[in-house]
Design goal:
This protein has helices at about 25-40, 45-70, 145-155, 165-170; strands spanning about 1-5, 10, 10-15, 70-75, 80, 85, 90-95, 110-115, 125-130, 135-140. It has about 180 residues and is an alpha+beta fold. This is DUF3093 domain-containing protein. Keywords: Membrane, Transmembrane, Transmembrane helix.
């Protein structure tokens, strides 16, 4: 556990993007420059420096966007997904994981995802949440199991408290399990 900028304890965090990725393009250009210095009679100084700066500039924009829109932070009071912050008091339950063997989708899989994005970000997995008003939403993270465990603990429960798929099924009006 670490502390955030506002002094709250961070129970779970994913940065969304890392600054080290800015160095990959210029590093590749440096390797090409070294190879040209060793093997070629003409070195393309301007082109390599221009490409390194251009690649780094585009990646800086991607890192800023990733940190703003795809980062996750859980504190004892709030869950922040991208730019949307949800108080933990508004969360009634963390729903169980999707049953991979089931042919049916869970109800929460078609629910709105938290954050301002229209769906789940790439390489993220959804976590179903039931809000106090009964609305279903999806939280998301790369390490979805870590976020699920931290959320469950922050809400005062354990993974054993989560209902399983069989405990959730109800009889529909015609008597057939959904």
């Amino acid at each position: 556990m670490t502390d955030s900028a506002d002094g709250a304890t961070i129970l779970f965090a994913e940065p969304g993007a890392r600054w080290r990725s800015v160095a990959y393009g210029p590093l590749l250009c440096l390797i090409v420059l070294i190879l040209e210095l060793v093997t070629a009679d003409q070195v393309h100084w301007f082109a390599l420096i221009f490409c390194a700066a251009l690649i780094a500039g585009f990646v800086v924009l991607q890192v800023i966007a990733g940190q703003r829109h795809v980062s996750v932070e859980l504190t004892p009071d709030t869950l922040r997904e991208g730019t949307e912050t949800l108080p933990l008091a508004a969360i009634a339950a963390v729903l169980p994981e999707r049953d991979e063997d089931s042919w049916d989708d869970e109800d929460w899989e078609s629910a709105r995802s938290l954050g301002e994005l229209s769906g789940l970000p790439r390489r993220r997995r959804g976590i179903g949440l039931r809000l106090v008003g009964g609305e279903l939403v999806q939280a998301w993270a790369k390490n979805h199991r870590g976020l699920r465990a931290a959320l469950t603990e922050a809400l005062g429960g354990t993974d054993a408290d989560l209902p399983t798929r069989t405990e959730e099924t109800e009889d529909s009006e015609n008597g057939v399990d959904r």
